[in-house]
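[Automated response] Your request has been received and processed.

Submitted sequence:
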Amino acid sequence: MKLILSLLLTLLFWNSNAQQSTASRQVATFTIEAPQLKTIKKIWIYLPKNYVSSTKKFPVIYMNDGQNLFDSKTSYVGEWNVDETLDSLSAQVIVIGIEHGGEKRMEELTPYKNEKYGGGNADNYLDFIVKTLKPYVDKNYRTKPNANNTCLWGSSLGGLVSFYGALKYPEVFGKVGCFSPSFWFNRKEIFHLMEDTKTFKTKVYFLCGDNEGDDDMVRDLNSMEYQVNTKRCECKMLNKKIIVKGGQHNEKLWREGFKKAYLWLF
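Generated structure:
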């Protein structure tokens, strides 16, 4: 029995390592020191099809959980197919996928410490993006660096930190993709921060499913949309909310919602 189990585990390991990358030719990687987090981050970068043959500058989307965006080989339970979707649209945008911190993911993507789960290191994570990663990207690639052309995007805890990033750095992030945000993790603090925000000009695309495990997701999303609308005139059409019937908290929901969200934001 132990021999069979050993063989099965070996086969599983071999299949995992043998799996071919599904990332398109438009995707490359590099590493960069993240002094704010005392680590080195792997970064995925998607460049438009016409990047090399043109001299134009492009908007940039900074996306959390880079492992899950482009490649099924590196994803946890399925990728978003961001590259294939953008390729099909001949999209004129650069995407920067930021490696999550593995066991430190919860710390990096949460603004405040949760009494039960800990966390609360998002300030340093966002400082890394704003003060280290973005300057590097703007220096080495042809970007449109202003807020109107800079988006922060994520799902789950990545959705939470993306929305928080817009509140903390409104002069940097003019657009946010906020998928299934885990507002529950810091519900009291994030809602108080939103309430204390005098103006909010960021363009936000909210998305969640109505079957993500409990009613808190939809309720929190509706409440946050209401708070956002109190900070600006609804006539400006700066936010959109999509609640997917039967949608669950997984990559399938986010993958299927990505195209429409991108087209609306850009």
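Summary generated for your ticket: The first helix runs from residue 2 to 18. The radius of gyration is 19 Å.
If you did not submit this request, please reply to this message.
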